[in-house]
Write a structure and sequence with these properties.
It is a single chain. The chain has a domain of about 35 residues. It is built from no helices and 4 strands. Strand 3 and strand 4 form a beta hairpin. By secondary structure, it is mainly beta.
Amino acid sequence: MAPRKKKEAPAEPLHSCGNCRHFHERKEASRCRRFPPKVVYDLTERTSVSEFPIVTVDEVCGEWAPKLNS
């Protein structure tokens, strides 16, 4: 019997931020827009700002959803 071929691992996980519909890639920082932005207090400016979480393409979470065809 011939040996089975080993399956190659995908370059990135199947359900990762990079292929999620909530992922928005930008030059400065990619962000997850699944939920509304969080209010964050900036200590240097002494002001509050709203920010979406910064993520990378290879991160994973329980809120993953496939990208929509457009």
